[in-house]
Amino acid sequence: MNWNTTHEKPKALLIPILGMLLFVFFIIKAASLYPGGSQYSSTEEGFSFLNNYLCDLLDSTTFNGSPNPSKDLARLALFLLCSCLTVLWYYLPKLFKRKGVHLVVIRVTGISAMIITLFLSSNSHDLVIYIAGLIGLIAMITTIVALYKEGYQELFALGIFCLAILLLNYYIYESGLLITVLPAIQKITFVSFIGWFALLNISLYRKMRTTKNVQ
Q1: Where are the domains of the chain?
Q2: 36 phi, psi to nearest 5 deg
Q3: Strand ranges (DSSP E) for 35-185?
Q4: How do residues 74-99 score in pLDDT, each as one tens digit?
Q5: How far apart are CA 54 and CA 184, in angstroms?
Q6: From CA 42, how far away is CA 59, in angstroms rounded?
Q7: What's the rounded Cα separation, in Å, for the pair 30 and 62?
Q8: CA distance to 79, 131, 146, 161, per residue, from 118 (Å)
Q9: pLDDT of 131
C-alpha cells in the first residue's frame, strides 16, 4: 500500500475538526431537549450529567416512558462524529514515517470501529459497544505504539490516558463497582478522546501541509 502524501490534500483534515465541533454542538443541544429520567430515577427532570449516559439521548423513549425529542439530534451528532473520525483514521497512517503492516491495522480497525459505532442506536447497543470497543482497542494500541516509536511524546501520553480511562469504563461496567459514577466518567472519557483525536488531526494536518510544500 502506498503511503506517499504527494497527491493528498491536507484540507481534507479540516473535516474531522468540523465534525467534532458539530458533534459537541448537537449533543449539547440534544441534552437540552431531553425531558428527563435516568436509570436511577424515572421522575428526574432534564438530562443529568451525573446520572444519564450519552447513549440515553439516542433512545426513542426516556426512562419515564415518554417520547424522546432529543433522539434525532443525538443520532445526527453520532453520525457526524463517526463520519469525521473515519476520515481521520483513513489519513492517520500518514503521520508515521515507518512503514509496515501496523499502518494497515490502524486504518482498517479505526474505520471499522467507527462504522460499527453508528449502530449504537439499534436494539443491539451492548453488542455494538463490545465489538466496536474491541476493534477500536486494537486501533488505539497500534496507534499508541507507533506514536511512542516515532517520538510523539505528548500524543503518546494522552493516548495512554485515554486508553486507561477507556479500560476503567469497561471495568466499572462489567464489575458493577462504582457503577453510580460511570455516567460522569463516560463524559470525561468522551472529552479526553475528542481532545486526543483533535491533537492527532492537527499534528497530521501540519505534517501533510509541510510535506506538500516541500514537494
Answers
A1: 12-214
A2: 135, 170
A3: none
A4: 999 999 999 999 999 999 999 999 99
A5: 10
A6: 14
A7: 13
A8: 6, 12, 27, 24
A9: 96
